[in-house]
Every structure is written in C-alpha cells, then in structure tokens.
Amino acid sequence: MRFREFTDKIEEEVRNSLGEGYRTEVIDTLKNNSVRLKGLSIRKEGSTIAPTIYLEDYYASFCDGTSMGAVVDEIIEVYRRNSSPRGIDVEGFGDFERVKGRIVYKLVNRERNRERLESSPHRGFLDLAVIYAVSLGGTDYGYASVVINNSQMESWGVTEDVLWEYASVNTPRLFEPEQVGITEELENMMGDAFSDYADEEIRMLSEVYILTNKERLNGATCLLYGGLIKEITEKTGKELYIIPSSIHETLLLPKEGACLERLREMVREVNDTHVGEEDRLSYSIYETEGGSISIAGFIADNMHDDKYEMARLEAAG
After folding, report:
1. Residue 238 class from Cβ within 10 Å (0-12 exposed, 13-18 middle, 19+ buried)?
2. DSSP, res 220
C-alpha cells in the first residue's frame, strides 16, 4: 500500500471509529527546516483545538507488519490522551490574557525556514530566527506547543515586541537552563567503557560543556537567556566557541587552543550524518566576546544583509 493510500485509509478508519461529533482531515504540515509531514487532524465538535498526529512513523510500522486496526487504535489512544494537554486551558487559546504566561520562543535556522517565517512573527539573531509558540505543557508523549502565526498574533491585538517581552520572561522560567560537563554526560551514557578514554582525552573533554534546558527540548534557546552567556564566560574566565549541536542543545568550549576550521568540519559532518533534518540548527560556529555572541569568522562583505542580519545579543544585567 502506498503512503497516500495509507493516509486516506487511516483517516477513514479513524473517522468511522470515533463516530459522529468529530471531524478528521489529512493535512500537510510545514515543520522546522521546511520538513513537510502528513498529519491527521482530529477536531471534536465545538472545540477550538484540533490535535495533529503525524503519520510517517505509523506508515513505517504498518509496512513492518502492524495491522491497520492496531494502528488506528493507537492513533485514537494518542488523540484521547493528548486532546487536552496539561498546563493550560486549550479552549482559551483565543484569549491573550489566558495564554500570555505560556508564550515562549524557539531558535530556528533562518535560511532553511524562509517560507515558514513569512507567516510567523519573528526576529533575527545571527543567522538564526527567533519564533514564538504557546507551550501547552507536558503530555504522555512529551511537551506540546503551538507555533504562533501572524493571524493569531493579530487576533490577539499584540505585536512581535510584546511576544518577545513575554517569551523572554516565560522561556527561562518554564525551561530552566542546564549546563552539563560533557565528560559527565559521556560517563553516564557509557558506564565502565568511559574509562577506556586516555587521560589526555578526558582532560581535553573536561573543558567542554553542554548547554541546554532541563527538559532537553529546544535547549538552544538558552543562548537568548539574558545574562547567561556572560555569566558562563565570567565564571570560566574564558571566551568560548559555541557549537550548534541541534535545536535542542549547544556545546561550549574555550576558544584558546581550538581550531575553528576543524570545528566547522565537525559541525558539517555531524549535521549531515547524525542530526535529523528537522533538528538541525546551523552549520555556523559562534563565538563569545564580552558576553555577546557573533558568528565566528564572519565577514560582512561576503553576505547579504537580507540573509544574515548580524544581530548581536548584548547580555543584559
């Protein structure tokens, strides 16, 4: 069965199983980095919320032998568990006063999200873009959020500056930053095998840190937390290179003794072979200077202003 036939059949079976009072529709969804996914939108009559369940993984499971009935049952179970996410009154989404405390920001690659940014409030940061979402809190399958588009912002009667103001307070509060030594992370992952590293390798790794948040979700946004980068550089006494591992985390390492070109090669290889397209943040290396962040080795004359607004995040406080 081809994927299109599968999605049509799933929509029909789910609609029949749910019965009257529900509307189902297969939709194309534009995700991060212009990744397009097929999703099944399910809306209960009278509800303003229509959760979307992406079907690519279910198709793979079906091709591996899972029955159509089992797939339908699982989709309905996922919908019932997540139709009303914890943490916010989803039916009050149209009221800005009821959602303003859950507005957060995310960092995405600007060039790879050009189409998405046309319909979303955003601001430039380096070669990236800050977009906004309403965090719906935890579900049985992780954290849920709804990206804010221009139409939603206009219906609230607010501006992008207002979204930035609330997100700058809410994001660090809801997604607390976490800085973890990479040696500690590797030791937790590898157990006894970590002892196979040579002492010199361990010494070099001991100065590398992972910067993310406690949920390990969209943790690259910690770069935007006012004063955090300045605090880290003052604590270490060193200026840093920032490696964009993914949208979920970055790596911090001292600039002294590091080879920028080798770091660039590493980022290219890791992005191309180990990071999924939807999770990639950038192929650039960033650097700190006095608490602010810029693209390492950036030469303004080589790049167009409309592609790379060189906005420097000046650390606050």
Report:
1. middle
2. G
- Name the amino acid, one letter, at 251: L
End-to-end alpha carbon distance in the chain: 59
- Contact by Cβ (8 Å): 140, 119: no
Cα dihedral sign, 296-301-303-308: positive
Q: Rounded CA gap, 29 and 153, in Å?
A: 19
CA distance 44 to 50: 7
What is the spatial distance between Cα 93 and Cα 80, in angstroms, rounded to a whole number? 19
Alpha carbon distance 310, 255 (integer Å): 20
Classify the C-alpha dihedral 289-294-300-306 as positive or negative. Answer: negative
Q: What per-residue string of b and e applies to 138-148 under the rule 16 or more CB within 10 Å gives b? A: ebeeebbbbbb
Q: Provide the pairing of β-strand 52-54 with 177-181.
A: unpaired
The maximal CA–CA distance of the chain, rounded, in angstroms, is 66
How would you write the pLDDT of the chain (317 residues) with one tens digit per residue? 999 999 999 999 999 999 999 999 999 999 999 999 999 999 988 877 788 899 999 999 999 999 999 999 999 999 988 766 554 556 677 899 999 999 999 999 999 999 999 999 999 999 999 999 999 876 555 577 889 999 999 999 999 999 999 999 999 999 999 998 876 655 554 455 445 544 444 445 568 899 999 999 999 999 999 889 999 999 989 999 999 999 999 999 999 888 899 999 989 999 999 999 999 999 999 999 988 899 997 644 333 344 334 344 433 33
On whether the CB atoms of residues 208 and 249 are closer than 8 A, the answer is: no
Q: Is the dihedral of CA 277, 283, 288, 292 positive or negative?
A: negative
The label of the residue with tokens 């989803």 reads: 90
The DSSP output letter for 23 is E
Residue 210, classed as helix, strand or coil, is strand
Token representation of residue 235 = 């604590």
